[in-house]
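Lecture 7 notes: from sequence to structure.
We start with the chain below.
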Amino acid sequence: MAAAAGQQKRKRPRAGSRRRHPWLRRVALVLVLLVCALLGSIVLFRFVNPPITAVMLEEKLIEGQTLKRRWVPLEQISPNLRLAVIASEDGNFCRHWGVDWAAVRDVVNQAKSLSAVRGASTIPMQVAKNLYLWEHRSYLRKALEVPLAQAMTVIWPKPRMLEVYLNIAQWGPGLFGAEAASRRYFGKPASALTKREALLLAAALPNPLARNPARPSRTLNLIADAVQRRLPWIAKRADCVLKP
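Predicted C-alpha cells for the same chain:
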C-alpha cells in the first residue's frame, strides 16, 4: 500500500506539467482564429470591395495623408492600363498561381541584398501586401505574402485580382487606385487613358511617391519605353483579363 501511494505521488507532477504552459494553447488558438479570419476576409473580398487596406491605414494614421480614391469595376479601366500594368509588374500574371517561381529563382540567383527582392513580386503578392501587410521591405513580409497570394489566387479569378489591384495600388501620397490617379494626373477617367498615359502610370508603380506620371522624368520615360516594347509579347499572354 505504501509503495502504491508513493507511485501515485510520483505521477502527479506529470499531470501538472500539462498545465504548466497554458499560454501555448492560447497562442495556438489565436493563430488559428487569425488564419480563419484571413481566409474569411479573402472569401468576402471575392465579392465585396475592400473598404480600406493596411497600406491606406499606414498612410492615414502614420503619414497623416488624406486618402483620395474611387473604386471602379475592371470594365471601366482602360485595356491600355491593364496591359501596361501586367507588362510592367507581372508578365506571367495569367500563367502562375500567385507566385512566379521562375522569377523567384532568378532573383535568388542574382540578389546580393534585400533591394533586389522586389523583382519577383507578382500582382497577387502586391495585393496581399497592400491589403494585409506593411510597406517596409523585409524577409518576413515576403514570407507572408506567398501563402496569402496563393490563397487569393485559388479563391479569386484573375479578373477580380487585377480589379482589386488596380483599385488599391498607390500612385502618390494618399492617392490610391487607377481612377483617382487618372483624374489627378491626366484629368480624365481611367476608361479614357491613352496608351502612353497608361505606360507612364504603370512605370510609376514601383516608386509612386517619387514618380509623377504627369511630369515624367527622363528615367520614367525610359522605363515607360521599356514597358512599351514588351506590350506585343504580353498581349498574347494576358488573355485572362483582355478580351481577344
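Points to note: The chain has two domains: 13-45, 52-235. Strands lie at 68-69, 170-172, 175-176.
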